[in-house]
Amino acid sequence: MTHTLRAYRASDEEAAIALWQRAWQVAYPQIAFAKRTEWWRARWRDDLVPVATIIMLEQDEALTGFVTIDRKTGYLDQLVIAPEVWGQGLASLLIDEAKRLSPHRIDLHVNRDNERAIRLYEKCEFVISGNDVNPHSGAPVYKMTWQPG
């Protein structure tokens, strides 16, 4: 299978939102993410697209993931991978691209109960650098940081 990284295009919006919803629904089946689609669409358009560099991952021309990185602040807001390709190393490809785009430091927040994501970030050399609360959900989160060694 061929994996391609490319820049986000406005025409990717619907596919990105659908992928976000599908991936989070698998990660947190107890939450009705379909009810959050309009909130996510507004957040995507208002908070992410204007400030983040968004890199799309395609596998055989189908969207399988994306990462958003604010190159000014080094904040990684979203890393999304299609559930059917979890465990294939594709998240690491996107993290490597985020590191290339923000080579001095990356910060992110991850839900404390998202053990799969925490393990991934630790494997990619992120360390827990603080505690916080998600301003949208109120859930406890870790701040994680990567800096080149």
Q: Going across the biggest sheet, name each strand in turn.
A: 1-2-3-4
- Provide the succession of SSEs: EHHEEEHEHEE
Strand content: 25-35%
Mean pLDDT: 94
CATH H level, superfamily name: Gcn5-related N-acetyltransferase (GNAT)
What name is given to the CATH topology? Aminopeptidase
Q: Biggest sheet, in brief? A: 4 strands, antiparallel
Describe this structure in words.
The protein is of the alpha+beta class and 149 residues long. It has helices at 13-27, 37-48, 90-101, 115-123; strands at residues 3-7, 53-59, 62-70, 75-81, 106-111, 127-133, 140-146. The strands form two sheets. Strands 1-2-3-4 form a four-stranded antiparallel beta sheet, sandwiched between helices. A hairpin with a 2-residue loop joins β2 (53-59) and β3 (62-70). α1 (13-27) crosses α2. The protein is globular, with a radius of gyration of 14 Å. The protein starts with a strand and ends with a strand. The mean pLDDT is 94.
Structure at a glance:
The protein is of the alpha+beta class and 149 residues long. 32% of the residues lie in helices and 32% in strands.
Annotate the secondary structure layout.
Layout: E1 3-7, H1 13-27, H2 37-48, E2 53-59, E3 62-70, E4 75-81, H3 90-101, E5 106-111, H4 115-123, E6 127-133, E7 140-146
Antiparallel strand pairs: 1-2, 2-3, 3-4, 5-7, 6-7
Helix pairs in contact: 1-2
Question: What are the defining features of this structure?
Answer:
alpha+beta; 4 helices; 7 strands; three-stranded antiparallel beta sheet; single chain; 149 residues; Aminopeptidase; four-stranded antiparallel beta sheet
